[in-house]
């Protein structure tokens, strides 16, 4: 409170719940408050979504990898499919946004377009799409390929994919359905458009078999942070998930993306930037540290080592002593990594910055949120960390990654959210209804309506 | 009642609700009781599902065509995507089965397997998959092709598709997740299996990223009635939707499929046969006829003509006088039809059987349920029609196709269902919880568990 004064404008922050099975900490499921036996039960997620909605979160978000998690022996490597789970949660919630991850690498644009349009209808305008290209090799084997396409190739396909999907979402203009009982006219053919897309990767006739949805398009989110990923995000993303540990780097990322957005004719306000944050909240700092220690001690080193291997195209550190220094020379340089470039860079930077880290300490640093920021402290300290980054233009809000569920989410909602509200920085209740309302985003114009009116 | 006595065994019947947007009658949406403005609202389907569940229906079912309906100008040609809508309804209902149509022609087995496994989890064992191969040409253009594959080719792909999907559903054995907090073992690798499928159409490594679902597999349904379609159904289907107008033909179909099932090592009870039935219920027969007349008069001939064209590979009857005889010579023979063989056969047979039909009368005969059976009468008459077919081994129950929604479903539930219950032929309440329970189907064994225990 001393250092971080409320700025004059009291810019409103955004909060998204990143919702995994048992929590984000590698050992979450072993915590006594976790419920690993319920990860396939709707009632469990319903309870969690209700807590987030009580906390007035903008949205909740499900990740997706199209393959069994590599550490499935030592933690949940399976989960409900995002679009089905979010559709069910659309029926049990009323305001919170619902964001599903879906890959552009292993599905057809027509199938994806209708799933998301449908979720947007079902939720009355609360859908979001986290666009990913699937960096992990594991998925490719489930779709007839032996390895994933190159980083460049994946983003090229993603770009065309998004073009096709947004065209399909425009294919029925907002007022295309007239449903005039008397004349027998149901829909106006002049307001329905074949997309007739023929490109390098896709050939799609259209129109979509779902009418334009409440938000026009579901909110488009993106989570790639490499050079290519940032350019893609600057062009298409309306919100960005990103892993950031360091304030200066987060500021640089924030400035870069918002500046790049201008070159695509967009304004900085068109993109909401949400770094990940794993909060461990205690009534005292010591209590918070104790929760962290307990979770870290329940980790299995092999799990963390495999995560590192996965980020660094297979690099194996398992022969190095856990209490010795981190063997940086055994890792490929992030520039050469074909998988998750930006995440490997982040880990690389962390090791270079904190030279005295042992391998075990590194594993623990990554155990809480796999490289995302973490904060351990009192509710006030956590609120300060959040507002500190927002006030310094490093974030527009956070992608909250509770270490275990539902307990640490409830702590955050009950203890941190009221502070953010009291400081006038976070909504006390929803004023809008759609996810675009919550994030302050415009409803996209329909490309066909424009051309029809112009002609 | 006179003619159709209750048989000794009082065989229990099954009822499925075939749930389109505004109803099955071609002019449904123009009926004053219809709600064409709500076809994208969850609340509308929630209300309908609640009526069906109040009526103790076994299940409800959504069809799917992956393209805008050809008559979109004159009736709903767009709709919510089935898996998302059913996932939402899983949250608003508690017992009724939830069956989604999904095509094997335009999706990947891994994607489909996880969507359905997830729906089965979310609904606690109420999911069903209506396996179709997409007979309409329209879909192909949305997936990069210029025309659909041949009938034979589509079923060959469907066969391999089902093999892969069921393998994936078996890839996590039922007890694979141990979640032992103390030891840190989450899942037992000996109970998790890569499927390593390499076939003519698909190459899939597996395992699935969703654990085995409550029903083992969602119930498998099928709706193809051609020779190839029947063989496929006899081999895989646990329930069959079929269009039947004529008792004798329905009996022949019933006997044929149940007999064929034996050649795949199955018993007749392993398959539930559900012909479609569009019921128009009135308190008197005259009242029912009046509802039918009103609906028929609201049809637009062009719509019915296009339906016929679609069934008969494009045959255009629009130049023939509506009140003249049906020009049978202008239709290709069903044997030569590449699209929906069995449905064209049915229409062909109907025309041959009732030689005096005018073209308009034919259109009206098809308007109620597109070639499925219809019954117009009092609640007693409708109940008699249902039990009559079941007692004569033409059906195990019916796929109920209300002419308009929610009104004609409510009539059926409030007036016909109690008669079926009073006659001891239909459940007064659910006794089971899963769709398999309702249909009396066994939970499938896991192929991997068998081999593991045997070795
Ligand atoms: C918060 C967050 C969530 C992510 N979720 C997923 C996911 O669910 N599935 C996935 O394939 N990648 C996910 N990613 C990874 C990125 O989408 C991206 O594919 C990866 O970082 C490689 O892109 P890049 O090289 O541009 O960074 C996520 C990244 C972040 C920061
Ligand atoms: C009640 C019923 C519902 C059907 N629903 C669909 C559907 O939703 N999508 C589809 O492509 N075909 C649907 N069909 C068509 C069949 O699945 C099948 O694809 C078509 O009849 C061609 O197969 P066949 O030549 O073996 O009859 C349905 C058929 C029936 C009887």
UniProtKB/TrEMBL annotation, chains A, B:
Its EC number is 1.-.-.-. The keyword Oxidoreductase applies. It is an enzyme of class 1 (oxidoreductase). InterPro entries: Diverse_substr_monoxygenases (IPR051260), Luciferase-like_dom (IPR011251), Luciferase-like_sf (IPR036661), NTA_MOA (IPR016215). Keywords: Flavoprotein, FMN, Monooxygenase, Oxidoreductase. The keyword ATP-binding does not apply. GO terms for molecular function: oxidoreductase activity. Residues 28-391 form the Luciferase-like domain. It comes from the Bacteria. Belongs to the NtaA/SnaA/DszA monooxygenase family. This is LLM class flavin-dependent oxidoreductase. It comes from Shinella pollutisoli.
């Amino acid at each position: 409170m001393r250092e971080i004064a409320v700025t004059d404008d009291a810019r409103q922050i955004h909060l998204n719940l990143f919702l995994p099975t048992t929590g984000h900490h590698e050992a979450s499921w072993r915590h006594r408050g976790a419920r690993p036996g319920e990860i396939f039960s709707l009632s469990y997620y319903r309870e969690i979504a209700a807590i987030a909605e009580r906390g007035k979160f903008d949205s909740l978000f499900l990740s997706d990898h199209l393959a069994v998690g590599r550490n499935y022996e030592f933690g949940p490597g399976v989960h409900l499919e995002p679009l089905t789970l979010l559709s069910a949660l659309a029926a049990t919630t009323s305001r919170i946004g619902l964001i599903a991850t879906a890959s552009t690498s292993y599905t057809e644009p027509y199938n994806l377009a209708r799933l998301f349009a449908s979720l947007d209808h079902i939720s009355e305008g609360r859908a979001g799409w986290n666009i990913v290209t699937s960096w992990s090799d594991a998925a490719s084997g489930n779709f007839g390929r032996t390895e994933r396409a190159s980083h460049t190739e994946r983003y090229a396909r993603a770009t065309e994919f998004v073009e096709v999907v947004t065209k399909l979402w425009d294919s029925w203009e907002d007022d295309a359905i007239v449903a005039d009982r008397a004349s027998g006219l149901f829909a106006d053919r002049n307001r329905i458009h074949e997309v007739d897309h023929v490109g390098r990767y896709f050939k799609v006739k259209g129109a979509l078999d779902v009418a334009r949805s409440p938000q026009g398009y579901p909110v488009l989110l993106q989570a790639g942070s490499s050079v290519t990923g940032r350019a893609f995000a600057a062009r298409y993303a309306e919100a960005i998930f990103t892993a950031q540990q360091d304030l200066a780097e987060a500021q640089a990322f924030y400035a870069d993306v918002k500046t790049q957005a201008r070159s695509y004719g967009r304004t900085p306000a068109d993109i909401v930037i949400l770094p990940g944050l794993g909060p461990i909240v205690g009534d005292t700092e010591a209590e918070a540290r104790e929760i962290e220690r307990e979770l870290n001690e329940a980790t299995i080193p092999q799990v963390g080592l495999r995560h590192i291997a996965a980020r660094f195209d297979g690099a194996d550190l398992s022969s190095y002593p856990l209490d010795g220094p981190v063997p940086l020379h055994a890792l490929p340089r992030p520039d050469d990594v074909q998988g998750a470039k930006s995440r490997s860079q982040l880990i690389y930077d962390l090791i270079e910055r904190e030279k005295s880290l042992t391998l075990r300490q590194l594993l623990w640093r990554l155990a809480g949120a796999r490289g995302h920021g973490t904060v351990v402290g009192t509710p006030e300290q956590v609120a300060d960390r959040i507002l500190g980054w927002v006030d310094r233009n490093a974030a527009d809000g956070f992608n909250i990654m509770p270490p275990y569920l539902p307990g640490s989410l409830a702590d955050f909602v009950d203890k941190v959210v009221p502070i953010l509200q009291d400081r006038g920085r976070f909504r006390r209740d929803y004023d809008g209804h759609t996810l675009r309302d919550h994030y302050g985003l415009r409803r996209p114009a329909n490309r066909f309506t424009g051309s029809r009116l112009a002609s």
